[in-house]
Write a structure and sequence with these properties.
five-stranded parallel β-sheet, ATP binding, 10 helices, IstB_ATP-bd, disordered C terminus, Rossmann fold, P-loop_NTPase, DNA replication protein
Length: 272
């Protein structure tokens, strides 16, 4: 009666391959070899599946791919402090009890070009890579515009359905980043205040985290959002991060040397 090794040898000869000569392996030894190979194949499949999942999460997040910590210049104390807080926030996700304890919100405020969106995006990229956190980045103004258009029931572009789908994602995603909160707005209208306040409260109830980015100082932001919406923010375990360093955006020089904007009366929101 043929043993297992004889059968393997005949099978290899049928395929035109020569089985390496050597001492015959018993069943238990062969089983260990096959189990080792199977485990290696499973690990490779799991690694590939994880890479695919992360790539999918990155694609759905709508994040700028350049928003990474390695692309950030630590050129002022406020940025150094913000990065330290950001990395502590990321590290806290390793603690399951912290993640299940409630909802956490980071509020980034300061003038234009200070690195707020960059650091928020870097946090998101790290959380996707390390913990496969679902992330959605949106500008608040674009959401409010889409919401307004969704009221047009005669529209033929399915904008109402699109907004309902987006609104569902806004509620369910693990980390929601809302940028340009109340940009160029002294105060949101009451309807927008209520919608945003309800969104934040729904996420709070579902233990979902948020990052809000604004150019307003805190008193101005409270007035712009309204009391109901601002109280929703205060319900979170909130981390307030102020950006006050120099702008990191390149300036635009005017080709007309005589031009001056000092009399326009416009000044960006200043952090007090």
């Amino acid at each position: 009666m043929e043993n297992l090794n004889d059968k393997l040898r005949k099978f290899s000869e049928t395929l035109g391959k020569k089985l390496d000569s050597g001492p015959a392996m018993d069943y238990q030894s062969l089983r260990k070899v096959y189990e080792l190979q199977a485990n290696q194949d499973i690990q490779l499949a799991q690694q590939k599946a994880r890479v695919d999942r992360v790539a999918t999460l990155q694609g759905k997040s709508d994040l700028n791919p350049k928003w990474r910590f390695e692309n950030l210049e630590l050129d002022s104390p406020d940025v150094v402090e913000a990065v330290s807080i950001a990395k502590s926030f990321i590290a806290a996700h390793q603690d399951s009890s912290w993640r299940e304890s409630g909802s956490h919100l980071m509020l980034f405020y300061g003038d234009y070009g200070r690195g707020k969106s960059h650091i928020a995006g870097a946090i998101a990229h790290e959380l996707i890579n390390e913990h496969e956190i679902t992330v959605l980045y949106r500008q608040l103004s674009s959401l409010l515009e889409l919401r307004t258009f969704s009221w047009d029931y005669k529209a033929q572009d399915n904008v109402g359905e699109k907004f309902r789908e987006i609104n569902k994602d806004l509620i369910e995603v693990d980390l929601l980043i809302l940028d340009e909160v109340c940009v160029n707005e002294t105060q949101l209208n009451k309807n927008s205040q209520s919608w945003l306040g309800n969104l934040l409260r729904q996420r709070l109830a579902n233990k979902k985290n948020c990052i809000l980015i604004t150019n307003h100082g805190l008193p101005q932001l409270q007035n712009a959002l309204g009391q109901y919406c601002f109280e929703s923010i205060k319900e979170y375990d909130t981390y307030k991060v102020k950006f006050s360093g120099p702008s990191r955006r390149d300036s635009l020089s005017d080709e007309y040397s005589g031009y001056s904007d000092t009399n326009t009366g416009y000044r960006p929101n200043q952090v007090k």
